[in-house]
Design goal:
The protein has 913 residues and is an alpha/beta fold. 45% of the residues lie in helices and 12% in strands. Its cofactor is pyridoxal 5'-phosphate.
Length: 913
């Protein structure tokens, strides 16, 4: 039997243990009295022992049924055990236990085939009452356990909108394990009889306890404090849940306590009906989808359409003789719900007062923001809205140079003066990493020394990057606030919306960090630490400041914005995005300008289907986001393990690790890989808590240079054209596989099969290759794995677009609009006139954005000086898609006369003037 250490998570362990138990019991029934019986019995005993540590945290099949199955085995009733294990495994796989009672005895009249969940229609599944589990924490004996569960069962009523079962555990530690392990749990009832320690001893379960509690203080607590502390601890790991505290303490004692996720306190009473109603009400609050519900109701109304949109109610389709196929493909509901009306129970996205407003408020609660705004034309628009709302013409903005192109265009629209920040390069893989904190602090200190700190408005960073690099958000924000206490932060979390629903990932999100800092900066301990550091840093040099972990002043303003592509990582129709705001000065300073920017960029005819999908997507993650994100991470981890440990795949492929993508001095935990063939899994928690940068495990970057194919060829001609596998991101010698909340274990298995087939075909090809063919293959591999062009840093803005030569900020807006006059521009060929101009030490200045795919961000922006390094990189690019570059003409640049014509009263004046 596989070791527990072979599994990244207990969820996979449980599923595979039940599968192994079913198969072993079936084999035992077939073997009769053969010599294999003893070995099978031993394996079944081990599986029962392993499952005995896990099953107490789940309502189905329940410990009573599990113990009955053990007795069937001990008494030799193997046929009965085979029937029972098959029923349990089938119910767990299909989720049938969520919708009906699953009889586990052979005398049951239940027709398993008739009730097979896989045969249910989507409509039938949608009509079923949603199922969840309630965790009751109390140290009770078996009789009291049955009494608790029976009282919970008696409260059920036919009109209840949901159905739930109870799980009873005795201790605080068991409760922490349960909420991190059992994704069905939606509510916790904490009773006064709970104890502290768990009796279970298992390495995976021990890891869960460590990651959930993460404090030694619970060991010194008094028993009466266990309940309130449990509510606080669960709030850290699964804040979306509801807790109900039953206590014997007085009202005065409880009133002043921080009770975390506790919705209500019951004082030493056994009012099960009141508790039942509160549990249902709490889940209903998360299940609510105000706009989706309003749109469904609207679609049922008989209406006459005498305004825009012939497609509304599907009339232009049903009356057509030529586009009936469209109606057949999409079905009637999407057209019944298609309208431009803002009345009749609906709402306006531009001025929401009804269900859209309520839906945005629910999203704000779910994602931990103070305000949340929906967008129906993608995060590109969200980015421009935030920049235009916050940044004024002439403000200085520090921008991650390899961020999404929408930010660069946003800087032009806002009239910002941009300081580009260089990420550390990963030349070997032709990709960039992320911006080191030292680089950000260096630029802030330089601007401070130049007397420009008052003009510094915003820091804009991508978290996480396309390749999966995630910042230590709290450290970046705190140290930057120590230099500029009112700095605004825009975290582009386009690929990181799912992170809110993982305890490990959540700590590196903009909204969670903003809430944490707002609380911490108000504490007396933080005040003391800040004052002590100020004494130590009095008169300190910039070098000392760069080498010190700075503490933000207690009066620093927390001003954080996060933009998320909901459609990229959560359930939403394409272009569904959200803007999350946690800005202490939003109401007084930004709200009006935000409204204007929102009006500027938002369509007056937003797609209601997208808005409804955002509403439903929020409901999903509040109720099952923890489960889905956990499975997403598990899928990526299993992919890592399968590729890294397969001898054939190792010949041609390599999964890039954190050690490959993050320099050692940015990995304070020392973790270099999430999986190692010799040591097994590494717990991610420590590195996600400590390191400057971490690698998002859901992104698996595969080095494919060993195949002789570049990344783009491998993506299009091999994966897509031959095997139907779709991916998005490539580099010169890598391809990126991203798991998401819809990824299944079967999808991962298919990918592994494909990669093995590719490797086998390469083996056969090379085995039959001639000497010259082998030489050609080796040359291509060497070119992709050893001969790589160095990635260029941002050069500089031309002096015509800089206010002085002291600090590097540049005015892209002037350069951008200067290029509108064709007389100001010329074209230079990469292989001819451009190279000659640089060889002659002439300053060549880009007149537009040059964006190759990959890497997908501007390598040149308007007003930027073209360096020899940038030219070398452009000549080495072997991609077919380069936005802004015309192969027939060359690179568009400014003429010397145009640069001379740019008049700036600040041009090249010393900062002191």
């Amino acid at each position: 039997m596989d070791s527990v250490s072979d599994y990244y998570s207990a969820t996979q362990l449980r599923a595979d243990r039940w599968s192994a138990l079913r198969e072993s019991v079936i084999s035992l029934c077939r073997e009769g009295n053969s010599r294999k019986v003893a070995a099978l019995k031993k394996k079944i005993e081990e599986l029962f022992d392993s499952l005995a540590l896990i099953e107490p945290y789940w309502a189905f099949p329940g410990m009573a049924a599990f113990d009955h199955m053990r007795r069937q085995f001990e008494y030799g009733h193997f046929d009965d055990l085979s029937f029972t294990t098959n029923r349990v495994k089938r119910a767990l796989t299909t989720g049938a236990y969520r919708r009906r009672t699953i009889p586990l005895d052979r005398d049951s009249s239940d027709d398993e085939e008739h009730n097979d969940e896989a045969m249910l229609s989507p409509e039938a599944r949608a009509m079923a009452r949603p199922y969840f589990e309630v965790l009751i924490v109390d140290n009770v004996n078996d009789q009291q356990d049955r009494w608790l569960k029976s009282n919970v069962s008696r409260m059920r009523r036919p009109e209840d909108p949901f159905h739930y079962e109870a799980v009873v555990v005795p201790s605080l530690e068991d409760a922490l394990i349960a909420v991190l392990f059992n994704h069905n749990i939606q509510a916790i009832v904490v009773r006064p009889g709970l104890v502290l320690k768990s009796k279970n001893d298992n390495e995976i379960l021990a890891k869960y306890i460590h990651n959930a509690s993460h404090t030694d203080s619970i060991d010194t607590m008094m028993p009466e404090d266990y309940g309130p502390e449990l509510c606080r601890l669960i709030a850290r790991v699964r804040p979306e849940l509801d807790a109900y505290l039953v206590t014997e303490r007085s009202v005065e004692d409880i009133a002043g306590l921080d009770l975390g996720i506790c919705r209500r306190v019951f004082y030493n009473q056994e009012d099960f009906m009141e508790l039942h109603l509160n549990i249902l009400r709490g889940v209903a609050a998360r299940n609510k989808t105000p706009f989706f519900t309003a749109l469904v109701e609207y679609s049922k109304q008989p209406t006459g359409v005498f305004h825009a949109m012939p497609i509304s109610r599907g009339k232009s389709i049903t009356r057509s003789h030529w586009i009936q196929d469209m109606g057949a493909f999409y079905g009637p509901n999407i057209f019944l719900a298609e309208t431009s009306a803002t009345s009749g129970g609906l709402d306006s996205l531009l001025e929401p007062h009804g269900p859209i407003k309520e839906a945005q408020e629910l999203a704000s609660r779910a994602f931990g923001s103070k305000q949340t705004f929906f967008a129906t034309n993608g995060t590109s628009t969200c980015n421009k809205i935030v920049v235009q709302a916050v940044v004024r013409p002439g403000d200085i903005v520090l921008v991650d140079r390899d961020c999404h192109k929408s930010h660069h265009y946003g800087m032009v629209l806002a009239g910002a003066e941009v300081v580009y920040l260089d990420s550390y390069p990963l030349n070997e893989y032709s990709m960039y990493g992320a911006v080191p904190l030292r680089e950000i602090k260096h630029q802030l200190l330089a601007l401070k020394a130049a007397g420009k700190l008052d003009r510094v408005r915003m820091l804009l960073l991508t978290n996480c990057t396309f390749d999966g690099l995630v910042y230590n958000v709290e450290r970046v924000m705190e140290e930057c606030l120590a230099i500029k206490p009112d700095l605004v932060f825009l975290w582009d979390e386009a690929w990181f919306a799912f992170a809110r629903f993982s305890p490990t990932y959540r700590q590196r999100t903009g909204m969670r960090t903003a809430n944490n800092l707002r609380k911490r900066l108000r504490t007396e301990e933080h005040q003391r630490d800040y004052e002590l550091q100020q004494l130590e840093l009095e008169g300190a040099s910039d070098e000392t400041m760069l080498n010190t972990r700075l503490i933000a002043p207690p009066d620093a303003r927390i001003r954080v914005y996060a933009t998320q592509s909901t459609h990229k990582t959560l359930t939403s129709l394409r272009q569904g995005s959200m803007i999350h705001v946690n800005d202490q000065d939003f109401k007084g300073e930004v709200e009006q300008s935000f409204h204007e920017a929102y009006m500027t960029h938002t369509s007056t005819s937003p797609n209601y289907q997208i808005i409804a999908s955002l509403d439903v997507g929020r409901r999903q993650v509040e109720l099952e986001g923890f489960e889905f994100v956990q499975r997403q991470i598990e899928a990526a981890m299993s992919m890592r393990k399968a590729i890294s440990s397969h001898p054939m795949l190792q010949k041609y492929f390599r999964v890039l690790t954190a050690g490959d993508m993050i320099p050692e001095h940015h990995r304070q935990s020392g973790v270099s890989s999430y999986f190692d063939n010799d040591q097994g899994w590494t717990d991610m928690w420590d590195c996600w808590e400590q390191d400057d940068f971490v690698l998002d495990a859901t992104r698996v970057t595969l080095a494919v240079g060993g195949t002789g194919w570049d990344g783009d060829t491998f993506k299009t001609q091999i994966l897509m054209d031959k095997y139907g596998i779709q991916i998005n991101k490539t580099s010169r010698n890598t391809v990126l596989f991203m798991t998401n909340i819809g990824t299944t274990r079967s999808s991962v298995a298919y990918l592994i099969e494909v990669l093995v087939e590719i490797a086998n075909e390469l083996d056969e090809l090379l085995d039959d290759a001639s000497k010259m063919e082998r030489l050609s293959f080796d040359r291509r591999v060497k070119n992709l794995t050893e001969n790589y062009p160095p990635l260029p840093d941002f050069s500089r803005f031309h002096d015509a677009f800089r206010p002085d030569d002291v600090t590097p900020e540049g005015d892209m807006r002037t350069a951008y609009y200067l290029s509108y006059n064709e007389a100001n521009c010329d074209y230079l060929e990469l292989e001819g006139s451009l190279q000659e101009a640089l060889d002659a030490d002439q300053e060549v200045v880009s007149a537009g954005f040059i964006i190759p795919y990959p890497p997908g961000f501007p390598i040149l922006v308007p007003g930027q000086v073209v360096s020899k390094e940038i030219l070398a990189f452009m000549r080495a690019l072997d991609v077919s898609e380069i936005h802004g570059y015309r192969a027939d003409l060359g690179l568009r640049v400014f003429t010397p006369e145009a640069l001379e014509s740019v008049q700036s009263p600040k041009k090249l004046k010393p900062a002191a003037e």
